[in-house]
Amino acid sequence: MKKTTIKELEQKIAELTEALQRERADSINLRRRTDEERSQLANFYKATVVREFLPAIDDLERALNHTPKDLASHNYVKGIQVLAKKFENLLTSLGVKRIKTVGQHFNPHLHEAVHMEDGDGKHEVISEELQAGYKIGDEVVRPAMVKVKRGKK
Questions:
Q1: Sheet of 134-136: strands edge to edge?
Q2: Three-class SS of residue 66?
Q3: Of the candidates 94, 78, 91, which has an alpha carbon nearest to the alpha carbon of residue 132?
Q4: Do 80 and 56 form a contact (C-beta atoms < 8 A)?
Q5: How confident is the model at residue 152 (pLDDT cuts 50, 70, 90)?
Q6: What are the residues whose beta carbons fall under 8 Å from the beta carbon of 117, sequence distance 6 or more?
Q7: Cβ contacts of 139 within 8 Å, gap of 6 or more
Q8: Domain locations in the chain as residue ranges
Q9: Cβ atoms 138, 39 nearer than 8 A
């Protein structure tokens, strides 16, 4: 039977320690990747559900924007305003943010231009929002539909 020296044992301990550290690092990386994938998957499903609700929310906003002045203080209209606010709060709680539009530089990743007006500036600036756009984090759920004008900013 072969006698092992202290130096050989120390070398074996160092090799095993290094292997253990690599395994721990791999485990930490796997856990991090799994958490990132779960988060991305959660955002994907949130975006899918939100896309289905947006047409109803758009219709609700349009109805409120076209409320006759003589009905503006009616309790029925106030109730619809409360409902619209609940939808807004629900979107916020899901991490959904409305894309800024009017007065902002046009960004083709966030905005969909449906009309372009000539102006005297060099920059394309959003002059009107036709339909709200939304995003979750950096992912655009739906781009904002806008009118764009060349303007100064």
A1: 96-98, 134-136, 139-142
A2: coil
A3: 91
A4: no
A5: low
A6: 127, 147, 148, 149, 150
A7: 43, 47
A8: 96-153
A9: no
Per-residue tokens: 113: 């231009």
DSSP class of residue 74 equals -
Question: CATH: 2.60.40.10, 3.40.640.10, 3.30.70.360, 2.30.22.10. Which one for 96-153?
Answer: 2.30.22.10
Query: Is residue 12 within a helix (H) or strand (E), and if so which, with residue range?
Result: helix 6-65
Q: What is the pLDDT of residues 94-116, one digit of tens each?
A: 999 999 999 899 999 999 999 88
CA 6 to CA 125: how far, in whole Å? Answer: 75
DSSP-derived secondary structure letter, 105: B
Please state the φ and ψ torsions of residue 107, each to the nearest 5 degrees: -130, 110
Helices (H) and strands (E) in the chain, counts: 2, 6
Q: Are 142 and 109 in contact (CB under 8 A)?
A: no
Angle between helices 6-65 and 75-93 (to 10 degrees): 160
Buried b (16+ CB within 10 A) or exposed e, 3-20: eeeeeeeeeeeeeeeeee
Q: Does residue 142 contact residue 51 with C-beta atoms inside 8 Å?
A: yes
| The two structure tokens encoding residue 49 | 């559900």
